[in-house]
Amino acid sequence: MRDNETAAVVCGAGSWLPPRRVTNADLAGYLDTSDEWIVSRTGIHRRHVVDAGTSTGDLAVEAGREALKSAGDTQVDAVVLATTTPDRLCPATAPEVATRLGLTGVAAYDVSAVCTGFVYALASATGLIAAGVAERVLVIGAEAFTTILNPRDRTTVPIFADGAGALVLRAGTPDEPGAVRAFDLGSDGENSDLIQIPAGGSRQRSAGTPAGPGDGYFTMRGRDVYRHAVERMAASVRRVMDRAGWRLSDVDRLVPHQANSRISTAVAARLDIPDERCLSNIAEVGNTAAASVPLLLAQGSRQGWLRPGHRVLLTAFGGGLTWGSAALTWPELDIQGD
Ligand code: UT7
């Protein structure tokens, strides 16, 4: 980003977790798994899960409200919502979220890049501001991810969970605390089958073949995804640092998508970023897909892990395959809530 350009500047953050908590012991009560396996393989101890009837849009509204409040109850011109679990297949969930937040008539759309969704949405919102389309944008990552899991699938149920996080961006200058400096985004459709819901889309419907019993559920080839995740996130972080003109010693905090604590540790090790600079909340919230990065940013800021002036790298990886990283500085924020 050149210094005379308009920059997108973070001016608010918020997050929301559904109140119901599910422990590993709860899962081991009905799945062939154990607390020991889940903790040692993923770093997850417990997670939040929506109650019957609660949707992604409900979580997005709560996180969005917190973020708008922390930005001084500001108005925005657009709402960009990253999610894998929209309230309905059609239309997008963002317009209804905007209306429920009292943001009548604003631009509102969803971004679909699975666990990378929030970084893509942040880039999209930054582009709206840079192009002069919007002065202020609410960017939300929200998932009622447990609604697409097969409740009997021990390879996904212990990992994925529900939650929402949000940032407010405003037009500003690149030297301000909170300025978003650079992005790296990428994809690899050759491996689109590693993470998928096989049925329910136009491919299955147009073939006219009825969906198999488990085909409407989310599936993941975990071991293959793991390998790609480490390589892709580490490479993406290197590229975004180059674009931001930062060296490793300039980086105060790495905020990785909370896929698995072993993945985060491996990415930080490849980059030579010490563990104490790497934020994590996976033990308490699990993998919340598109909500993971903004949830960690909001919690990190509230708890003082992220401080004004910190140089922060975000990185995420997910289905598609997709990956993305962003470099930004952290602003002074007043955040309430979870
Ligand atoms: O969010 C973005 C995308 N997602 C990710 O980045 C996730 C990437 N993948 C992972 O995090 C890991 O691959 C998992 C956590 C999903 C799995 O960990 P793993 O170390 O790769 O385990 P694995 O799939 O290789 O399975 C090891 C063993 C298998 O048994 P065998 O074949 O060795 O006898 C599995 O059947 O663990 C078994 N297993 C389980 N055992 C107890 C699989 N799930 C469970 C379970 N409890 N829940």
Q: What would your notes on this structure say?
A:
By secondary structure, this protein is α/β, with parallel strands linked by helices. It has 2 domains: 7-172, Thiolase/Chalcone synthase (Peroxisomal Thiolase, Chain A, domain 1, 3-Layer(aba) Sandwich), CATH 3.40.47; 180-329, Thiolase/Chalcone synthase (Peroxisomal Thiolase, Chain A, domain 1, 3-Layer(aba) Sandwich). 31% of the residues lie in helices and 23% in strands. It has 10 helices and 13 strands. Helix 3 crosses helix 4 (94-100) and helix 7 packs parallel to helix 8 (261-271). It is globular, with a radius of gyration of 19 Å. The protein starts with 6 loop residues before the first strand and ends in a 9-residue tail after the last strand. 52% of the residues are buried. The model has no long low-confidence stretch (mean pLDDT 96).
Query: Cofactors and ligands present?
Result: oxa(dethia)-CoA
- The succession of helices and strands, N to C, reads EEHHEHEHEHEEEEHEHEHHHEE
- Considering the protein shown, what is the CATH homologous superfamily of the largest domain? Thiolase/Chalcone synthase
CATH architectural arrangement of the largest domain: 3-Layer(aba) Sandwich
Number of strands: 13
Structurally, the number of domains stands at 2
Q: How many helix segments?
A: 10
Q: Give the biggest beta sheet.
A: 5 strands, mixed
Fraction of residues in β-strands: 15-25%
Cα shape: globular
Strand order of the largest sheet: 1-7-6-4-5
Percentage of residues in helical conformation: 25-40%
Quote the average pLDDT.
96
**CATH class descriptor of the largest domain:** Alpha Beta
